Task: structure prediction
Amino acid sequence: MPMRLAEFTIEKIQSGLRQREFSAAELAKAALAAIEDKNGELHAVLAPLALQALAAARTVDDKIAAGEDPGSLAGVPVAIKDNILVAEARATAGSKILENYIAPYDATAVAKLKAAGAVLVAKTNLDEFAMGSSTENSAFGPTRNPVDPERVPGGSSGGSAAAVASGMCLAALGSDTGGSVRQPAAFTGIVGFKPTYGSVSRHGLIAMASSLDVIGPLTRTVADARAVYDVIRGVDEFDATSHNNNPKPKSGLNGLKIGVSKEHFIEGLDPDVEKTIRQAIEHLTTLGADIVDVSLPHTEYAIAAYYIVMPAEASSNLARFDGIRYGLSEHGSGLLETYLQSRGRGFGPEPRRRIMLGTYVLSAGYYEAYYRKAMQARTLIRQDFSKAFEQVDVIVSPTSPSVAFKLGEKNADPLQMYLEDIFTVPANLAGIPAISVPCPRGAVESRSAGAVSGHELPVGLQFMGSFGADDLLLDIAAAYQASYGRSRNSF
Result:
């Protein structure tokens, strides 16, 4: 019987390798076989890393044979979102403008994974430059949800989420600027963790919005997310915003105060999602947690502020892609014509939309009216969280206002697509850690005509913690997940 990665955890892999129950090479081959078997339908992977994976697996097996420590992630098949650099592999960021770009070095997070013995098996699909909530904006075609291939996997890290959920890898890295790790995790029934801003180095991440971007893991279990996070976290000399982040964790849920905000139960929230989340909150009380009402009054301005701050930073970051130094180059009759042709043909509709928005809000006469006001709103949102965390240990909310929607359903209305991030964006604006964990009970039945029989559309429960409280947040999420057992989703 072929090896199925969905049946493993990182702990099980480490134990099995040391007891010689299987080899790292067998794990790598199982991951590559799953990619070959499933990627035609799902399009989660843009590029398998077969040669790198098999070489890394052999190194792990050789170390084990020699009695050496192979690392805490030895043999674990990991996929990397294609806006995170892996040396000697393509890094497209889902865009034609970088279609043939080969990364000259490893991102710091990738280098740490390799040093811990992880086996990198693939680069995964994403919305172009991480701009989207459905992974339909990739220049190389959309990714489909393993739960129901007629539906989106969320975005922008939809390829990473689909790869984990379908068993192409055991863990994946994504980037989260406004919910791009947590929302696809919710849509595919897995765990997605956005660490505190700066606790994971951004060196080697193709920047979208530098004050918001965070690299985070997607896995099947919270324990696996913690194992990956413990490897990639920490200070990096190449990222001045990075910092050490090691508060004392508090295990278990008994006696913890969990905040619930009325601002997270608003018009537009799918009634079935609300019912599932309220059931999950009720379940938390049976585990010993105390539920406390908190107020986050400026949450209503989060989406508006985000879609000013993020495009402003994106327009600045994407200015480097001009057809001169690297990436697509369409030579015109002069410098300006080269810029216009290279960027016009290289960028898709969503990056062009956000570049124009960002340039506008930073332009003379509009900076004060838009960008400065958005930054003031961001400060108020951060202060709301600080006040709330004086009363509670964590805050819970839905991860997304809906379950996974059908491919193409929201493409005609960018605003409806942007509202998918309404519950995830505030954590990025405040810089605090947040995690999405599947709610195994009360999941909504798939109503798609082509839905996979017997499966349900998952719902994600989001936990948010105070700045730096990553370990506490992971402890609480792990206790919640353990109370239900492992996620039932397996494809």
